[in-house]
Amino acid sequence: MIAVAIIAVLLGATKAVRRWNFCRNMANYHAAMELTAIKEASRQYGGLELHFIVETAKVQAEHHARFKREYLRVAYRPWLPIPNEVPPPEPFLVDESSDQ
Fold first, then answer.
1. Counting CB atoms within 10 angstroms of each CB, which of 1, 29, 52, 78 has the fewest?
2. How far apart are CA 30 and CA 86, in angstroms?
3. 61, exposed or middle or buried, with CB in 10 Å at 0-12, 13-18, 19+?
4. Is pLDDT above 80 for 4?
């Protein structure tokens, strides 16, 4: 009976460590992608088409920052579900010339 309890605890601990490692790896991935998107958004561009690139990069940075926070939160709270990955939304292309 004690052996069964010990095995159950070890299996549970192994599953918890795997989940923690997965969540930390996903948080690290999203942190790297967020940094890449921030670098892209901080470049100096001109023109409307390139403005769209900057806006897209900002949206992607926000998306990856959100998932980085979610995975870090879930890594330390095993009772929470692992977040569903969704692609980042595409920003709207705003015509800045219509303001005149």
1. 1
2. 12
3. buried
4. yes
Mean pLDDT of 21-27: 92
Long-range CB contacts for residues 25-30, cutoff 8 Å, separation at least 24: 26/67, 26/71, 27/67, 27/68, 27/71, 27/72, 27/75, 30/64, 30/65, 30/67, 30/68, 30/71
Contact assessment for residue 58 and residue 94, using Cβ atoms and an 8 Å cutoff = no
Euclidean distance between the first and the last CA atom of the chain, given in angstroms as a whole number: 80
Residue 35's φ and ψ, nearest 5 degrees, are -60, -40
pTM of the model: 0.69
**Residues of the chain above pLDDT 70, percent:** 79
Residue scoring higher pLDDT (68 or 87) = 68
Distance CA 53, CA 38 (A): 12
